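Service request form, structural biology core

Requester: graduate student, group of Dr. S.
Request type: structure prediction, single chain
Budget code: on file
Notes: please return the result as structure tokens.

Sequence provided:
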Amino acid sequence: MHARLSVVLCALSIVALPAAAQAPATQAPQVGVGGVAYVQYLYQLKDTANHNNNFDVTRAYINVIGRFSGGLYTRITVDVNRPPAVTTDNSLRYRLKYAYAAYTPQGSSLTYKLGQIHTPFIDWEEALWDYRMQGQMAMERGGFISSSDFGLGVDGNWNADRINMQVGIYNGESYSGGPGDQRKDLMGRVSVRVSPTDDASRVGGLRVTAYGQYGKPTGGGVRSRLLGMVSYRTKQITLAGEYALTKDSSTAGPTPEISGGVASVFGVYHFSNSKAALLARVDLTDPNTDTGNNRLTRVIGGASYQLTPNLRLLGDLDLLSYQGGAPTPALEAVRSQAFFQAQFTF
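Core staff response, request fulfilled:
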């Protein structure tokens, strides 16, 4: 009797196994909250009359990220920052930086994003430079590219990020410029790892990267960007150089098409078996190559220390020079600054 019962139970279990395999468990939703903040002490070196100095929180980001079954990913990021204009209330403000849904089909190398999303280049370059707390990258600081905009995009990577790309159609007015009108911008970046190194991240290795953008600003005109970059990154060394051509025009007035150029080179050296690193960067920005005496040269140099996995310290100099001399005494006073900065995450 017992032998027959055992045979029956075994047969039922064999039949049930394939049915269970055909119905995988649904992944439970995962929602996480994190953040990053940049704080600093600034001392103005050229302001000989006062040597103004102050403490400040330059940025604070709150990220809410959701991961769901079926390849769905969501993100909302709030950006807390100092308003650019001095008002009667100069307290920190908050605004939306990212708000999008991303979908990656099972087994696909592509991820589709919709909402207020990353633009293709700045997020990529910041991951390579890795010192956003020091300030914006050259193209964003010059007002040529924004890090976030409203649009529809596709990310892709193949062969463990040997090829990494992002392309999308955006409003083109950046996340701070509103939705604009019916005109749109097409933006795209592709990066190819020519040779691997011990850095297996998406920006690691010897890479060649190209970025292009073409569209029309609100009201009409032309807006185009064409950029090339060569970078080399290992766990100890980062070296990169880029050059960009820009063109802008507007139908709002008689202003002709303006051509500009931006060059940037930067490097980071991490000491072996140490949490310390040295960094340097030079940005050359010429907003109008058809006229003289308007090129800006920014030199950045400093040293950082990773005090804990969640706290990084940076001391640096930020020196800005004007080709034709500082336009105003006020700009002359603030063009050379010393910083002590910190970045903390949670």
